[in-house]
Amino acid sequence: MKPMLRASTVTLILLSLVSFAHAGNRVKATLVSSTPAALPGSTFDVAIHFTIPPGWHMYWINPGDTGAPPKVKWNLPDGVTATPVRFPAPRRIPVGNNLTAFGYEEECTLLSTISVDKNFDADRPIDLAANLQWVVCADECVMEKQDVSARIKIGPVKPGANDQFSIWRSQQPQRGRVSADDVHISLGRPAGRGELSVTMPHDFESATEIEFFPPPLDFVVFDRAPNLHAIVGGMMVTQPFRIDPGQHPPADTVAMLSYLDGKKQHQMIEVPFKVRFGQP
Amino acid sequence: MQTAKIAAVLLSLAAFSSAWAEGPKVGDAAPDFSLVDQNGKTVKLSDFSGKIVVLEWFNNECPFVQKQYKTGAMNDLASKYATKGVVWLAINSTSSADASKNAAVAKQWNIDRPILDDHGGSVGRLYGATNTPNMYIIDAHGKLAYRGAIDSIRSADEADIAKAKNYVAAALDELLAGKPVSTSETQPYGCTVKYGA
User: A254 lies in which domain range?
Assistant: First the structure.
């Protein structure tokens, strides 16, 4: 009985989806809601799911040596807002000539949280739409576009209605585990260089294969290996970087810390990268 | 009293995206080369001694290059600085390209400046060009004055051109005013250069 109910719920969600795939696109995108219904005053998650054909890849917020991240332009009814999309944890993808991209193969799922104002007119469904634009590369690169949409009925939120979301959430990096207080960025000693230092708990001592994915700043280059130090009360991992010359705007973005923990489980932690660059 | 361990452990060397820094550095003499343009004419860098020269790594099949041409932005930029005596050379190091294909795209995209055929990739590798577009500026003394991206927004979206800082325009303005280039290196973005084996 229960599996049948769940199957019918999933069918309802799928029926509520409409997407306008551009003919000839290599990547297919869908907008998927975590709940078939929502009430004014509620919040719920949606996913923009990209299916990437074998041999092709898409990009993280910092695409690395090639490419560009997907862009999402929401078209939402009055009283409905979406948070900026949250990217899944990237991986390194060799792209030839000793170059590396940061991104995704097979699939990529961006998450966003939708908020419905308490005064939203409950006589009509919540129609979500977005214009998507992305670059996908194999040996060649192509830019593709697609409009996606989803209709959410008025009714109580059913947060567990779509099992896919537990998988998609597990693909996200850990956020909030490293706060701004755990991060120190020093600049200019020596000139043209900086260091990102992150304080981690003592059990980070057993971490291996530690590496950072750099923030999406075209003048900050993580050009050396990170270092790990024991400090009072914990561990500190330090990533040196080069700052290319020029006048640079303040940065308020993120880097990504990747490592294997003591149980050899791969961990990805989002690290705030907020800094005001001085004069060259 | 507990003494903190201060042993630094050098971690496994990660794969860094530093390959783009190969080739001449800013301030180095720009290596000379000789290539054939879309009309079959041989073009040497040394032909333009005493002039500011822009090198633009080009591949018409790359969406990041298409963004600059479909909007007319790259042609406008080259034309603007041509009137100030700046030489602008596009270089196509795509292994499948040749002079006739470069001629076809020059006609299609109204490109009136040389597109040089480097399908063997030797000049691209000499300069360490990694991306299309990947921009280099050589000053009037033959020294490399800028290498990197065309602009500050890594995107294939035409709408971003107007919002971005154009690093090439900024560097050319400074050079033409006799000033040092303040942003002389950036990380290029775009497609990878499609070198042959």
Answer: 180-275
